[in-house]
């Protein structure tokens, strides 16, 4: 599992249209379950995405084509993690007993 930390680099380019394009681009990944959660940081300096991609390279390819990244609005960093505890509601996401 991966934590994606998006960092806004040019807020002047951030428009409602590009935000809609960004969300639309990732929509299929959420529907398929490859991306679990996503949202903006507070204060609005970027966003966070939780990913179930099994391969970091595939996740990087996806993010490199994200409209925010392609239009110079954001950069990202990726941290891999292995969830070992969760609330009962999310226990099926655990990778280790």
UniProtKB/TrEMBL annotation:
List residues of the YCII-related domain: 16-81
Q: What is the lineage of its organism?
A: Bacteria, Pseudomonadati, Pseudomonadota, Gammaproteobacteria, Cellvibrionales
Protein name (Swiss-Prot/TrEMBL): YciI family protein
The similarity comment for this entry is: Belongs to the YciI family.
What InterPro entries does the record tag this protein with? Dimeric_a/b-barrel, YCII
Source organism, top-level taxon:
Bacteria
Matches recorded under Pfam families: YCII
């Amino acid at each position: 599992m991966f934590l994606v930390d998006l960092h806004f680099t040019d807020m002047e380019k951030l428009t409602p249209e590009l935000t809609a394009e960004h969300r639309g681009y990732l929509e299929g990944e959420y529907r398929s379950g490859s991306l679990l959660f996503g949202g903006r940081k507070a204060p609005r300096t970027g966003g966070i995405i939780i990913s179930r991609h099994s391969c970091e390279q595939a996740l990087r390819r996806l993010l490199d084509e994200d409209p925010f990244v392609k239009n110079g609005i954001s950069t990202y960093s990726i941290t891999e993690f292995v969830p070992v505890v969760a609330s009962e509601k999310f226990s099926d996401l655990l990778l280790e007993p």
